[in-house]
Amino acid sequence: MRIRKMIDSFNCAVEGILYSIKTQKNMKIHFVIAAIILFVTLFFDLTKYEVIILFLTISLVVITEMINTAIEKTIDLITDDYHEFAKIAKNVAAGAVLISSLNAIVVAYFLFFRKINPYALRVLEYVKQVPTHISFITLIIVVIITIILKAQFKEGTAFRGGMPSGHASVSFSLATSIAFVSGDAFITTMAVLMALLVSQSRIETKIHSLLEVIVGGILGILITIILFRLFS
């Protein structure tokens, strides 16, 4: 029973994220920029602490935008009439988003812009030799793009139903990454079989249609292949 409640709470949280993406133009922009920034990190030799700072900064922008949305909807629920306090509340919430966005720009400057120099090619060569880093960034980008597509089609949730299948895109992305990293036919075959089993289970339980699973699988494979071909 407790586990069921935890799962329900988790699904409600995901619903909140999807609602923000579906209804808030700024949230869509934030997610697109986040995907681009994560892609750019492949060109730079960031330390683990710089990566942590980057993720915290991205999270802060997204969190403040969601809080801003929650405040706006709460005020709209209470009253449709103009009120000075309602205006102040919305403006303060919007100000929080602005501050977090400005903070993100400052962090980006210190993490990236100062590193752009004639030795940038050395960094690129280093990244090409780190397939695990590429795998990690690729997985995150696949998840972000899948969520954005689900929000655009406005069907299902991040983990249940909708176009494309998130489970299929992630499982086939992982299988493709394993193929690149391991270079072993047996390991690759096992990874592909696991991805097929995951996808088949989504169809068997009628959570996804065959088309949604196929599109998800193709999406995960293509994004992974493109990134690995570019950086390895």
Average pLDDT: 79
Supply the CATH class of the largest domain.
Mainly Alpha
Helix percentage range: over 70%
Strand content: under 5%
Q: Which CATH architecture of the largest domain?
A: Orthogonal Bundle
What does this structure look like?
The protein is an all-alpha fold and 232 residues long. The protein has 2 domains: 1-118, Orthogonal Bundle (Helix Hairpins); 130-232. It contains 9 helices and no strands. The chain has helices at residues 2-23, 25-40, 48-78, 84-111, 120-128, 131-153, 166-182, 185-204, 210-231. Helix 1 (2-23) crosses helix 2, helix 6 (131-153) packs antiparallel against helix 7 (166-182) and helix 7 (166-182) runs antiparallel to helix 8. The longest helix is centred in the first third of the chain and has 31 residues, at 48-78. The protein starts with a helix and ends with a helix.
